[in-house]
Each structure stands twice: as C-alpha cells, then as structure tokens.
Write a structure and sequence with these properties.
By secondary structure, this protein is of the alpha+beta class. The chain has two helices and five strands; from the N terminus they run ααβββββ. The protein is globular.
Length: 128
C-alpha cells in the first residue's frame, strides 16, 4: 500500500510543479501587460509624451506598487526607459528558472518570450 502511495505521489508532484510554473508565468505576463498599459497612460497624461520609471508609474497611480519592488511571484522585473522608449523584462527566479519562460515588452506592445535566456526584442512573440 505504501508503495502505491509513493508511486502516485511521484507521478503527481511533477504535474503540480508544472501547474505552479504555469501560474507564475501567467502572473508575469499579466504584470508585463499592466506595465505596458501604465506606460501608455502615463505617456499620454502625466509624462507629457515621455515614459516613466516603475516608481513614477506607481506614484502617478497608473501601476500597482506590487511590481515596483522588482520581484513578484518568483519573477524579477526590470524596466529601462529613456523618455521616448522603454523596455520591461521579467526573469524567472527559483529552482525551475531554467525551464521557465522569461518575458520582454517594449513600446510596441508585443510580449516576447525565451526559455533559458533573457527575452529581448528579437525573441519570438507570445502566441506565435
């Protein structure tokens, strides 16, 4: 009986880990979309045509402060901006990071992904 329980647990654990990783990836994609939307709203209003930092987006009320710290749901977020352009990336953290997707988005609004390396402007577009 104990052997059967061990076998079932051995089969269920990888599925549980994959499910958790998928949930973390979905959360990261949602955060990337929220940052993009916040950048567009900030640029059209408070930014006077310029994009802002994560802190500026949060201070202006366009972005929830959860991502401003840089880490959310086992993903590290970074934003670079020079006023007229921006790039945001989400890099997975933790023991399964090498098997999880990283994400990238810029002012084009296309979310890009990569596995095992940081996503960038030449990575595949999400959904393609």
């Amino acid at each position: 009986m104990l052997a059967i329980i061990g076998i079932v647990a051995g089969l269920a654990l990888p599925a549980l880990v994959r499910s958790q990783d998928a949930s973390k990836e979905a959360s990261a994609i949602g955060s990337i979309r929220a940052i993009f939307t916040s950048q567009m709203a900030y640029s059209a209003t408070a930014g006077n045509g310029n994009f802002g930092t994560l802190e500026e987006l949060a201070a202006s009320g366009y972005l929830d402060g959860a991502v401003v710290d840089g880490i959310s749901n086992d993903y590290e977020f970074s934003l670079s901006e020079d006023g007229t352009s921006f790039a945001v990336s989400a890099r997975p953290l933790g023991p399964n990071a090498a098997q999880m997707r990283s994400f990238y988005c810029d002012e084009t609004g296309m979310i890009r992904w990569a596995i095992g390396a940081p996503a960038n402007a030449s990575s595949p577009v999400l959904g393609n």
